[in-house]
User: Fold these one by one.
Assistant:
Number 1:
Amino acid sequence: MIPLTSRRSKLASIVVLGPIILFVNLLVFAQDKVQLSVDISKPGPKVDRNIFGQFAEHLGYGVYEGIWVGPDSKIPNTRGIRNDVVAALKAIRVPNVRWPGGCFADEYHWRKGIGTRAVTLNPNWGGVVEPNTFGTHEFMDFIDQIGSQAYLSVNVGSGTPQEAAEWLEYLTAIQPTTLVKERAANGHPAPYKIPMLGIGNESWDCGGNMTPEYYLRQLTIYSRFVRNFDPAQQGKNQMLKIAVGPGGGEARWTEWTDTIMKAWQKRQWSWDMQGLSMHNYTVINWDNKFASVGFGEREYAQILKETLKMEDLVTKHSAIMDKYDPEKKISLVVDEWGSWYAPLPGSNPGFLVQQNSIRDAVLAALNLNIFARHADRVRGANIAQMINVLQAMIMTDKEKVVLSPTYHVFKMYVPFQDATFIPVTLNAGTYTNSDITLPRVDAIAAKDTSGKLWLSLTNVDPNNAVEIEVSLTGINANSATGETLTAPKVDSVNTFDAPNTVTPKPISAKIQGGKLTIKMEPKSVSVVSIS
Ligand code: AHR
């Protein structure tokens, strides 16, 4: 029992300390408020819509079941392509789809996927049978149905320049050659549009384990002979040839970028390229990958720390490219990126099946923001992969379909496609988990093609909401509306039974005296438009 005198002095100290505690609290809150300044009068480069590209490899259920169910399936489809998936993809305005791989591309022989199909193997991914029922025409039909464009990867590893050149003749030529007649007999008399062409895939590894010099020789040969033959796809509509680029930041990869870019600078008329690819997955230990479900805050922080390495990688390889291409003619195309976790228990390990949580949504936003901030050089990116594989947009199980948290980020970011980047200044604050300290908030701004200003705001902190105060210069802001994506737990996911656990909700913002105030929920991604 506390003696009366002590009780009294305790009461007195509460009375005296009360205002001090309140003051300290206010101070902490004031410091906690994140300040963001946006000056619309200082526009940056265009955020190329192609940074929102997708990747669909013949891998696990990525193509078969994910896209292709065949015309006789009970699953509603159009010419064999599932309607639910098409509708979902149309809504995120997929600018391009990279196909048929990945490692698969360097073992793909296009003739097996037209006319009478050859049943082959997929040795890279589970050693399963490849029926080739989804081939060139089915892929082109698919991208047409979703309103996208083709980014084909030609086989450099086990194919020949002739095989690749003939594929391009089959696809794009207009004169009545035997191949063009064959294309017409297979249902497509008009040439196909092929705006992007990858020359090999990871040629330093699964694509043939080549040295930079050996690959360079292949690149110059393929670039010379693998042409787009359609006169309408020349000049400003020219097909972009994308060379294999680095897969990391170590010496081996900087040497790779240096070798290719140096040769490009000294190129002769007979070869050229317009892009250099880069692959970078968010994975901490390849031999003991993190789980995609059932993890805690520590793993959340570790993965987000790892994913932010993309910034250094892009900066490092852009700097090498700047040396040989100061005019930034060559795009850096990050055509494989995303989280790579351990296969879900019970799944075929060769099928790369993982879940997708709010952690992946935050990860996606952080990476898209990095690409947007490097819009002067990064003009393409393809998340791996579109359906049922790695950091997917969509998961299917026979007739069932569920949209992932990452899908919602891509949908919220649609207004950033081809928008003009607006630089921002931000006092991000920090989020700390034990020895990991990360910027607490990330933000980008852009002006869309109709002149509307958009902000994307990410609160990395999984425990605390953040109030953000946005000062706007060059715009008379009257209203702000938007959506926010958050979830109850760091490992919250959408499932077939509970598909809306992580789904965007409307967000309210206050505008007063030209300043916008928004409360960002913990572990959230918000996109707002200001008018
Ligand atoms: O996306 C899965 C694989 O990762 C791709 O096939 C390959 O290019 C990369 O190593």
Number 2:
Amino acid sequence: MKPEIVITARGHAGTMATLQAEFSAHLLHEAPERNAFFKQHAPRVRGLATFGPMPVDGKLMDALPKLEIIANFGVGVDAINLDDAKKRGIIVTNTPDVLNETVADTALALIMNTVRKFPQAEQYLRAGHWASRGPYPLSIEIGGKTLGVLGLGRIGEAIAKRAIACGMKIRYHNRRRKDAPYPYDADPVALAKNSDVLLVVTPGGPETTKLVNAKVLDALGPKGYLVNIARGSVIDEPLLLRYLQEKRIAGAGLDVFVDEPRVPPEFFALDNAVLFPHVGSATVETRKAMGDLQIENLRLHFAGQPVKTRVV
Ligand code: 8YV
């Protein structure tokens, strides 16, 4: 008998196919009626495979009283209530490390595009302005500038390496200072003050909600750039929009938003923002590696072995 699991959303296609082949998988996102879905499957469901931002809270856990494991596709587990899982003795796994290099590539691209304005320059060409108005205005360069890393974890380290190769200087702030070869700032305001580009790489969730507030943006100032590849929730999004409109910071590069995939349309009109549709880890190779790790955790658990990447 294959172990029974629930899949919460339509995720990476190859991973979905393997999950459905290896387990008896019930698709919550395709259920016409949730109550009937839980009534039918809950007595036998032991695993949950989660994709994307759909909240997984105590209520959902209680609807699946036999639940033993929640295996997330992604390193960020902010959509899962970890306290609720812990209280119920439910294991939570994520997919760390396999995405570090790809997310770091995306971050470097976003830093570069935000400061050098390459997407805007390309738009200028496509709009036919090059011939009629002359060369695209000069941008500033990233070499010699300071990158402030807010959240120097494994992904932050991989980004720092790339930024150093481009001639940038690195500083950082974490809740706890770590053994790192970069200057440390005691809080996000001090880091913003000392940075030309402030890069947000913290986890999401309640502890970092609106960590980037007016004080931080004021410290970054009209010559500073903000780049976010973490979670939209870490920044006060309406405030950021206003600061960009009023040119109170120089620009922003955003891969993440508060209510994905919905992006406030006012952002589309900004010429000082570069917007990516959450593509941090979005390569064929990395998404496959993430899925393989998610599946491996489920496989190990149902074989009675310790999971590979446990969060709680
Ligand atoms: C993915 C991510 O876009 O790993 C994360 O936390 O945000 C990204 O790698 C996401 O998990 C896909 O569902």
